[in-house]
């Protein structure tokens, strides 16, 4: 039943659920005070969402997350990317 549910989401969004689960697992123990880690997460979300992120936007996201201590999850980054 769950497998069919995820397949439907993949069809509608074009996003591979395995990629989402991998990303979610990597976020659990990530150090979001580390700029390199945050940049890698932003790039991965951008790739999964098929939304290119300019260097300027990436810098703004990194600053917001690392310096401002903003909590991060897939939705946070996705929402920030979609606001550009």
UniProtKB/TrEMBL annotation:
<dbReference type="Pfam" id="PF14069">
    <property type="entry name" value="SpoVIF"/>
</dbReference>
<protein>
    <recommendedName>
        <fullName>Sporulation protein</fullName>
    </recommendedName>
</protein>
<dbReference type="InterPro" id="IPR025942">
    <property type="entry name" value="SpoVIF"/>
</dbReference>
């Amino acid at each position: 039943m769950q497998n069919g549910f995820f397949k439907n989401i993949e069809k509608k969004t074009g996003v591979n659920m395995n990629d989402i689960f991998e990303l979610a697992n990597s976020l659990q123990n990530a150090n979001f005070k580390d700029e390199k880690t945050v940049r890698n997460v932003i790039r991965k979300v951008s790739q999964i969402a098929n939304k290119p992120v300019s260097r300027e936007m990436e810098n703004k996201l990194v600053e917001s997350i690392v310096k401002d201590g903003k909590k991060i999850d897939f939705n946070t980054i996705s929402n920030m990317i979609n606001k550009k």
